[in-house]
């Protein structure tokens, strides 16, 4: 009578221990944090489970880089579009990383400077050009009240900085 209880109890205990080990090793976050830097690489790879794997250069003097995994496919797709740009990634650290490349799993992210990132994402750079032109022309316009200073600045640009003088000419268009 005891043998059937043991035959029933052993698999239940083994399955329970297995689920507990999986939770502790892969799902339980031992720490959370964020990293800020330039997203230098992100690619989808994996032998068993395909995940997004990336590298962020934190830009310190010793060129500190951090590797991370992104298990969420939508999150990885979003980050893929920001390769080469400054980002803030929020992550969870797990005890064990296998079958992923790292034990750091990105849970969310955002551009380091959302306004600049939005402006830079414009394909033609038209927004950045228009903003630069508006700021430059506004600065020159503030000098217009003092005609002597305005003319000196304009003459200086014409003689010593042709690029700025050409920008000045665009202000009058």
Instruction: Calculate the terminal CA-CA distance, rounded to whole Å.
Output: 98 Å
- Regarding CATH, which class of the largest domain? Mainly Beta
For the biggest β-sheet, the strand order reads 3-2-1-4-5
Main sheet properties:
5 strands, antiparallel
CATH superfamily of the largest domain: Nucleic acid-binding proteins
Mean pLDDT across the residues is: 79
Distinct helical segment count: 6
- CATH fold category name of the largest domain: OB fold (Dihydrolipoamide Acetyltransferase, E2P)
Structure description:
By secondary structure, this protein is an alpha+beta fold. It folds into two domains: 29-119, Nucleic acid-binding proteins (OB fold (Dihydrolipoamide Acetyltransferase, E2P), Beta Barrel), CATH 2.40.50.140; 122-171, no CATH class. The protein has helices at residues 2-27, 73-80, 114-120, 126-143, 147-160, 162-171; strands at 29-45, 51-57, 65-70, 86-94, 104-111. It has a five-stranded antiparallel sheet. The longest helix is centred in the first third of the chain and has 26 residues, at 2-27. The protein is rod-shaped and about 105 Å long.
């Amino acid at each position: 009578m005891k043998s059937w209880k043991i035959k029933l109890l052993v698999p239940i205990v083994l399955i329970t221990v297995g689920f507990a080990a999986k939770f502790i090793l892969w799902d339980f976050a031992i720490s959370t944090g964020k990293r800020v830097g330039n997203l230098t690489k992100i690619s989808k790879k994996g032998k068993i489970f395909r995940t997004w794997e990336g590298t962020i250069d934190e830009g310190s003097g010793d060129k500190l880089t951090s590797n991370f995994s992104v298990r969420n496919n939508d999150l990885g797709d979003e980050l893929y579009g920001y390769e080469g740009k400054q980002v803030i990634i929020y992550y969870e650290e797990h005890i064990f990383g296998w079958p992923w490349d790292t034990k750091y799993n990105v849970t969310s992210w955002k551009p380091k400077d959302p306004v600049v990132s939005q402006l830079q994402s414009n394909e033609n750079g038209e927004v950045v050009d228009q903003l630069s032109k508006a700021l430059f022309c506004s600065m020159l316009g503030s000098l217009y009240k003092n005609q002597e200073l305005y003319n000196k600045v304009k003459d200086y640009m014409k003689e010593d900085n042709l690029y700025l003088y050409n920008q000045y000419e665009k202000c009058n268009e």
